[in-house]
Each structure stands twice: as C-alpha cells, then as structure tokens.
Fold this protein.
Amino acid sequence: MTRPDPRALCPCGTGEPYGECCAPYLAGSAAPTAQALMRSRYTAYVVGEIDYLVATHDETSRAQVDVAATEAWSRETQWQGLDILDVVDGGATDATGIVEFIARGVTRGAPFAQRERSRFRKLDGRWYYLDGQARREPVRKVAAPGPNEPCACGSGRKYKRCHGAAG
C-alpha cells in the first residue's frame, strides 16, 4: 500500500494533513495520548503499516497478533472512516486510557462497522493498545462521493481517481 501524500488529509479523520497528524507516529515518534495512538493505528491499517500495529500492541498480548491475518485484512479492506465516540483518560499525564470508536470499511464486498471500546496503557512514555471489547454496530450506508469530490479515505485524490476508479 502507498502512504498518503503528507499534505493530504489524514485517514484518521482529524481533518489535519497526514504529514502533521499520524505520519510522525508511524515513523517512530511516540503518540502523546491514547486517542492519538488509536487514530494512528487506524491509519496504519489504511496504509498497510503492519509492523507499527504489532509494535504498538502491548507486550503482554503482542505474541497473539496474527500478523498474516492483520496484513490481509488491511490490504483487502476499503477503509471508509473512523469515528471516535468516547475517550476516558488517556491524556499526556495519564497511565491508562480508554477510547471507544467505530471503524468503517468494506472487505471483499462486505461492509462493516467495527465498534470497539479499547484499553490503552502508557509504559516508559509510550502508549500501547492493550485490548478491546467489540460490539456489533449496524452498518450505515455511506453514499459514495461525487466523482470530482475528495475520496473519503483521505488520500487527497478525487474519488474517481482513487476508490471510485474502475478496478
């Protein structure tokens, strides 16, 4: 997968340019909050940065990550957006935090809305994903943007040149 242009909107949905949002974290900088880590992990799925997903998984359960399945899901999914629903703690001075989110996408033609309440912990100044409780969420139909509108994935390209291109 290709990384977004640093000037394109970040896939995580903050409205900030990728180069000023999640790119520094994927390049090795520590995310300052649990929410920033959550957003950067979503972006890692979008751009196929599987090593980042493994590295930001808590060491107590990192060995349980199915890297091949994670890579396949990342590659086979048309990511459609991330909504942050709730944040409990997880600030720069906290040791733990919770982020509840919905990640939307389409995998092999099947739309999904993954709602999860994730737990994070900070260890030696870095945030890590501990685990999460997934809940079923009804899939919301999202209308495709017009052909000349920006693609919803945050690539910065027109829809017709990105996810709207004939495959």
In short: Helices lie at 23-26, 34-47, 50-55, 67-76. DSSP finds four helices and four strands in the chain. The beta strands are 77-89, 96-107, 110-123, 126-136. Residues 18-137+147-161 form a domain with the Nuclear Transport Factor 2; Chain: A, fold (CATH 3.10.450.50).
